[in-house]
Amino acid sequence: MKTICYYSSSWFENIGNAFIDIGSMLSLSKALDENINEYRLIQTSMFPCLNYSYSTSLKIPFRLFWRLYGEKLGLTFLERKINNLKSCTNFNLATHIKPNVIVISGCVLTTFYFRIFGNILKRLKNKGAKFIFYGCGGNTYSNAEIENVSRWLDVLQPYAIITRENLAYKNYKSFAEKSFNGIDCGFFVGELPLKGIEIDLSPYIVSIFDKFKNKKLEEKLLKNFSRHYNIVKASHVPHAEKTIFPVPKKDPQITLVSENPYDYLILYANAEKVYSDRIHACVASLAFGVPCRLYSDSPRIEIFSKFGINANEEVTLPKETLRFWLVKQQEFLSNILNELL
Questions:
Q1: Strand locations in the chain, DSSP E?
Q2: Which string of DSSP letters, residue by residue, matches 42-57?
Q3: Which residue, 82, 93, 152, 272, is the most exposed by fewest CB within 10 angstroms?
Q4: How far apart are CA 54 and CA 163, in angstroms?
C-alpha cells in the first residue's frame, strides 16, 4: 500500500493556513477516490518546527520593533535577516516516516520556509519520496527569494508544481516534470456545505484587520456600516502570544478568535460582506460567493488575478469562473496522482 503524506501548515499564527489545508485535503481526497490503486492518505504537521523557531527571547523586542518600523521596512528586510531563524532540528514525525508522495500547499516557495524545513524535505527525498507542491506561491518575489527557492527546488526535484500565482508559475515551472498554473487551494473550501446556516446575527458584515496600520481604516468602515448591519470582527491569529508579529487587541464581545477554522468558514459563508487585510479571509469569502474587499499591497494578491478580479475593490467571484478553475486543477491533480500511484 502506498502512502501519500500531506505536510500540513501550522494554524496558531494564521488560521488562514487552515483554509488552505482543508481545501487541499478536500481536493486530494476527491482525486484519490478516483484512483483504483490502494493508498493511504495521512497528515503530519509543520507545527513542531515553527513552535521551535518562534521560541526566542527576542520575541517581545521584535514585536515592538515591527510595530514601529516593520511596515515601512517590509518583508524584504526580514529576508536579509533570515539566517537568524533556527533550522528545524527538534523532533518532527515527518522525518521518521517513509511516504511515497509528499504534498505541500500554501505560501511555501519562500526563503523563510526552506530555511526551517529544507533539511527535513531533503531527508524525505533521500527516502525516495516524490514531491507535489500543490497550490503554492511565494512571499515577496524578490531576487533573493527567487534565487533561494530555485536552489532548493533544484535539490528537491519535485515531480509536480501547481502554482497559485502567475509569478510563481513563471519563475518555478521548469523545476518539475509536470507544472500547472493553478489557483490557491483555499478556494476549494466553497465545496463544504456551510452556506445557508441560520445565524441570528444576520444581516451582518465581518471585519478582519490584523495590522496596526489599518486600525483607523477599520474604524471608519465600521462606522459607515453599523447603521445597516450587525458587525462581527475576527482575528486570524488564534494565539497572539505565540507569534513573533504584533496583533492589535480586539473587543472580545464582538470578535471571533478560535482554534477551529470551521468557526471562521461558517461566519464568512453566511455574511453579507467581508472586509479584511487578510488574503485568505477574502479567498474563503469568495469561495462561498460572498462579496469582499481586501486591503493589501502584498505581491500575493495576484492569487485573485487568475479570475480577472481586483480584490482591492469590492468584488464577487462568478460561480462559473471559479468552477472552471476548480475542475481544471482537480483534473490535473488526479492525473498526477494516477501517474505516481
A1: 2-8, 39-45, 101-106, 130-136, 160-163, 178-181, 204-208, 230-234, 255-256, 273-276, 292-294
A2: EEEESHHHHHHHT--T
A3: 93
A4: 27
What is the helix, strand, coil percentage profile of the chain, to 5?
Answer: 50, 15, 35
Residues across the chain: 341
2-187+323-340 and 190-318, same CATH topology: yes
Give the pTM. 0.91
Burial pattern 89-123, b for ≥16 Cβ within 10 A else e, equals eeebebbeeebbbbbbbbbbbbbbbbbbbbebbee
C-alpha cell of residue 337: 496522482
Q: Are 192 and 293 in contact (CB under 8 A)?
A: no
Asked whether the bond before 99 is cis by omega within 30 degrees of 0, the reply is: no
CATH superfamily for 2-187+323-340 is Glycogen Phosphorylase B; (3.40.50.2000)
Provide the residue-wise pLDDT of the chain in tens; the chain has 341 residues: 889 999 998 898 899 999 999 999 999 999 988 665 678 999 998 877 766 555 555 555 666 555 555 666 566 666 665 655 667 777 888 888 899 999 999 999 998 899 889 989 999 999 999 999 999 999 989 898 999 999 999 999 999 999 999 999 999 999 999 999 999 999 999 999 999 999 999 999 999 999 988 988 998 988 888 889 999 999 999 988 777 777 888 888 899 999 999 999 999 999 999 999 999 999 999 999 999 999 998 889 999 998 999 989 999 999 999 999 999 999 999 999 989 88
**Cell numbers that stand for 31 in this block:** 482525486
Domain 190-318: which topology? Rossmann fold (3.40.50)
C-alpha cell at 307: 479570475
Cα distances (Å, whole numbers) of residue 148 to 120, 138, 171, 212, 297: 16, 11, 12, 30, 23
* Residue 82, helix vs strand vs coil: helix
Quick one: which of 278, 273, 304, 309 has its CA closest to 289?
273
Distance (Å, whole) CA 169 – CA 172: 5
Instruction: Give the three-state DSSP class for 15.
Output: coil
Listed in sequence order, the residues at least 6 apart from 330 whose beta carbon sits closer than 8 Å to its beta carbon are 27, 30, 31
